Amino acid sequence: MPPAPPPEGGSPSALPHEDLLQLIWSEQRFRQDALQTTEGQPLLIEFPGWRVSSGGPDFTEARVVLGSSEDAVALFGAVEVHWRSSGWYAHRHHENPAYNSVVLHVVLYQDSAREIRREDGRVVPQLELAPLLGEPLPEIAEQGRSEASAAPWRQRLEVQDELPGRCGVMLASETALRRVVAHAAEQRLLAKAEALRVRWPQQPEEELLFQQLFKALGQTAHAAAFEELAQLYPLRVLEQTIRQPWRSSRPQVLSSWFGALGLLDRIPEEPKNPDPTLRRELLHWKALWEDRPERSRVQAPRQKRYRPQHAPERRLLAMYHHLQCTSSTGLLRTWLELLIHLNPDDPQLRQEALRRTELLWEAPEWEIWKSCWHAGTSPHSRGLSLMGADRLLVLWANALLPFFLAYARRHEDRALEQLLFRIFMALPGEAVNQKIRFMQHRLSLSRFPQARFNSLGGRQGLLQLHRDFCHNFHQGCGRCGLPELLEEPDLS
Fold first, then answer.
1. Alpha-carbon gap, residue 355 to 336, rounded angstroms
2. Using CA atoms, how far apart are residues 226 and 147, in angstroms rounded to an integer?
3. Residues 113-147, buried b or exposed e (16+ Cβ, 10 A)?
4. Using one digit for the tens of pLDDT, what is the confidence trace for 453-484?
5. What is the Cα–Cα distance from 216 to 311, expressed in whole angstroms?
6. Percent with pLDDT over 70 in the chain
7. Alpha carbon distance 199, 193 (integer Å)
8. At what angle are helices 456-465 and 174-199 packed, to 10 degrees?
């Protein structure tokens, strides 16, 4: 079979848009017998992945097997596509943590012997397609062309992107979908609670709640580091200091947290920092940190890139004010009292739960960190909440509901357990992320305007379905069991 013709003169402009190569990979339009990577390792493609039109790698959820049957290794993750192997470094993917999920680099031509490395240092196997094409590249590009179509491969990609999955095509009824999503949501919450219940005998209940709140505050970028920080400075050690007036407790607690996370290592210079008050505060905390006889550091890695509103400094300030707010009653007792005052039959349950949650996380007006994202940014004219509504919902989903469900089961409190499930389905859903958007599209939820699954439980259910079916599979939609579940009649 003839290989694809090389570009004339090696000019990048001689090649069509990279969308064409994405289509070739997506449709698997190349010879796949005895596949090998450019390093000579046997390669089996079990699923090419789902194309992503937004930023980051070109395909996600791909599964390939590397090596022979004796030493085969299954790789699951993203696939990045380039015309030339040098495109990886030309686009600086080796410096971008967003590409640390890439498990295969697919190129038309290998124009460099340089191995492909991710930002985390791991080497990425590479597949060259040019010798495997069964027809010349121009013919592939011309297929489907019409007078009104200058790039037919893009139309084919768009059609693929718009098609629902088998689950969406075979969906029998909205009732079946609601049943399956609700079951997935329940299982997701129960699994989180069970993971906590196993840890229960190892430490006091209040410490476990403290750690879970800290971990959920960290989001993906800082979750492991924040959980380790909560273990380095447990609540029982902080309680006495937290109860002191804020002028005394605030610098003591925050200098420890900031120092342990390395946030005091680099303080912006005066000309770069438009708020001298904030810089003076950081310098004061740095001095307190350096005066400590013991300075334990968090070892867990933190992502370098995150949205400004998710800056770890702001999350730590929010946690400090929350601990101050709950210090007189105690962290665990405060949250138990909040739950006791919620009525599961109240039609305003959602609003009341959110209102009480916001009060417990509200920072005072004088808090300087409410006016900026982090130490190197200009202050805003209006205050910026340290804890947005979406972050509070994530706290409920990942910390409060799992913890108190485990608590209710340990203490055999059926009333509390039922309340927690009502809250789970009543609270609004967290912000739509890529996985939720993917499930909404594949299930073709737009057909059911009254069933958008916008509750916290609904979106958690979609995430669980993604994990159970779209994430854990071998050959994509073809062997997925979700469509069969959605075909089952409603037996309720």
1. 16
2. 58
3. eeebebbeeeebbbbbbbebbeeebeebbeeeeee
4. 889 999 999 999 998 988 755 556 767 888 88
5. 14
6. 84
7. 10
8. 90
Q: What is the DSSP string of 221-276?
A: HHHHHHHHHHHHS-HHHHHHHHTS-HHHHHHHHHHHHHHHTTTTS-PPPTTT-S-H
Query: Is the Cβ–Cβ distance between 331 and 210 less than 8 Å?
Result: yes
List, in order, residues 6 or more apart from 145 with CB less than 8 Å away.
152
Distance, in Å, from the CA atom of 85 to the CA atom of 110, rounded to the nearest integer, reads 5
Rounded distance between C-alpha atoms, residue 321 and residue 363, angstroms: 6
407/394 Cα distance (integer angstroms): 19
- Distance between start and end Cα atoms, the chain: 57
Tell me the three-class secondary structure of 20-61, residue by residue.
HHHHHHHHCCCCCCCCECCCCCEEEEEECCEECCCCCCCEEE
Residue 46 φ/ψ, nearest 5 degrees = -90, -35
Is residue 168 within a helix (H) or strand (E), and if so which, with residue range? helix 166-169
Residues composing the chain: 492
Q: Closest by alpha carbon to 428, among 445, 409, 405, 453?
A: 453
Tokens 């130490």 appear where? 375
344 phi and psi, to 5 degrees?
-65, -20
**pLDDT tens digit sequence for 42-85:** 999 988 888 887 778 999 888 899 998 778 898 989 999 999 99
pLDDT in tens, 304-353: 767 777 789 999 999 999 999 999 999 999 999 999 999 999 999 999 99
Whole-angstrom distance, CA of residue 234 vs CA of residue 422: 31
Q: Tell me, what's the pLDDT at 141? A: 60
375 pLDDT more than 70: no
User: How many angstroms separate the CA atoms of 59 and 22, rounded?
Assistant: 9
Other beta carbons within 10 Å of 292: 13
- For the stretch 187-198, pLDDT in tens is 999 999 999 988
Residue 371 neighbours by CB under 8 Å, 6+ apart: 275, 379, 380, 383, 384
According to the model, what pLDDT value does residue 221 have? 81
pTM of the model: 0.78
β-pair type (73-84, 126-128): unpaired
Under a CB-based contact definition with an 8 Å cutoff, are residues 138 and 34 in contact?
no
Cβ distance 274 to 378 under 8 Å? Answer: yes
